[in-house]
Amino acid sequence: MPLPLRLSLFYAAYFLIMGVQLPFWPVWLQSRGLSSEQIGTVLAVALWVRIIAIPVAGVVVDRTGERRRALVALSGVAFVASLLYLPAGELTVDGATGGFVAILLVTMLMNAAFSPVMNLGDNLTLLIARAYQLDYGRIRLWGSVSFILASGLGGVVVAGNRPDSVLHLLILATGLTALTCCLVPRPPPPVMPSTGTPLKTGRIMALMLDPSFLLFLGATAAIQSSHAVYYAFGTLHWRELGHSEAVIGALWAEGVVAEIVLFAFGTAVIRRLGAGRLLMLAGIGALVRWSGTAVAETLPTLAALQLLHGLTFGAAHLAAMRHIASAVPVDRSATAQALYGALATGMGTAIAMTLAGAAYARIGAASYHVMAAMGLAGAVLALALASRERHRGPEPAKA
């Protein structure tokens, strides 16, 4: 089986999970009797677990070189953990269907195993793409296509008043991801460690204290975290505005279509702009998108704003992969990927998600204004990163 196809199948399966979970997991949690604050807590805890699980996995695989073995093992554990949501969701606490504590515990276990899967998969794909001159964006876009299909199917399921089916779809997608992880190839021999010796703390600290890497982490954290209200309460907010589940699924899908276009043509774009300037555009896009979402009610306006997902997520992610591929040595690439996953998309989003639950319960859609401010902060940090890139010269590596 060709390498691009094997890697594309992994992304397609993984984003089946995300296509169900991001738009409709809060709907399942709500059907189990959880309040807005409890939903925000469950989603935030999943992100806090990332902060521990992803760096541990990254350091281990950089020490051992066993990226693929870790990927297969962790995805298998995640599938088993997903099955535990079935009994957890049937518990009764204080008269409400579903046990908040039980769901919280399963979420912790599930994400301890599942959180590193995307980072390890991205790390393997970047190493393989670098060795064989593959286009990362065109491999990754199949994950976005899969997200569209899954979110559309989820919309149909929820529209049929079957929130339990959201969990069933999640379990199925997690099982498929575990199977496709077995198809992901090992990286070529030159990127495997020759001694298996532990990484020195000084080398990790050097990465963390690199000003460009810190600006990169800060910018990506602010921009990715600005999606917190959208991820946690976007579907619920649109339902409150009177939009149907089918329309909501289409809105989620539309944003990802813009993301697909970015991934398809992103290599040429990022060669021209560099990681810093592309991140700056993502931050500006977040400022516009969330400011508009806070006040938008009509479908045409929401649809126009959703197109900005190509910038706020797609451009930010592609810029992140570019920076890691071009600015980090191979023997620390998994650790760098882990720091990005744990701190930028993990801790930052966890903090934002924790605040989002309380904010949305009190001020509703106005909480999107806070997300807009985070996007602006990300744009400012990205501008500083772009300035350093400009003084350093063009990046030679291919994203």
From TrEMBL:
Residues 204-399 form the Major facilitator superfamily (MFS) profile domain. Keywords: Cell inner membrane, Cell membrane, Membrane, Transmembrane, Transmembrane helix, Transport. GO terms for molecular function: lactose binding; lactose:proton symporter activity. It comes from the Bacteria. It is found in: Cell inner membrane. The keyword Cell membrane applies. Its main location: membrane. Pfam families: MFS_1_like. It is a multi-pass membrane protein. The chain crosses the membrane at residues 7-27, 39-61, 70-88, 100-120, 141-160, 166-184, 204-226, 246-266, 340-360, 366-386. GO terms for cellular component: plasma membrane. NCBIfam families: mfs (NF037955), PRK11128.1 (NF008346). This is MFS transporter permease. It comes from Skermanella stibiiresistens SB22.
